[in-house]
Amino acid sequence: RGRKGRAVAEGAWREAMIGVCAKIQGKSLEVLKEEFDEDISLNSVRGGMFSVLPEDRRPRDFPDFVIMTTLQARDSFNVQNARSWMFNVMDRTGEGTVLREEFVRYASLMQPVADPAVADLVFRELVNPKFSGGASVVKAAEAVVEDLPSTKSAGFDEDPSRKSSETISHASENKPIFVEVPSSMSIIYETWKNFVDKLKKIYNRVDAEWETAKELLGLDPVEPLIKGHGAIDHSDTIPVPGRLFLSERYLVFLASMGSKHYVIRLGVISGVERYSLPVMLRDCVKISIEPETRSALKGEKISSVPTTSSVPTNSLGHTAANAVRLCSISGAPLIFSFHEFRSSLKRDMWIAYLDEMVAAHRLHAKFGFGSKGRAPSGTCEWPATAQNSPFRQDPSPPLFAVGAAVNILRTRSLKTATGRRSFKLLLFSHPDTNRDAVKWYVDSIQAFDGHERRSWVTRAIDSIAENMEINSRIYDVNEEEPFDVAKLGEGIARFYDLCRPMIWIYYEYERLMQWRNPPATILAAIVCFFIAKNNMTHLIPSFFMLAYAGVILAVRVRLVGFKGTDAAAAAASADARSQGMFELMTQVHDALHSAQNTFVRLNKQFGKLETLHLWGIPWMSWAYLIFVLSIALTMAIIPLRLLFIVFCLDAFTRHFRYPDGAANRFWENIPSNMAKFDVFAAKKNV
Question: Could you say which of 224, 584, 644, 677 would form a disulfide bridge with 671 (CB–CB 3.0 to 4.6 Å)?
Answer without folding.
Answer: 677
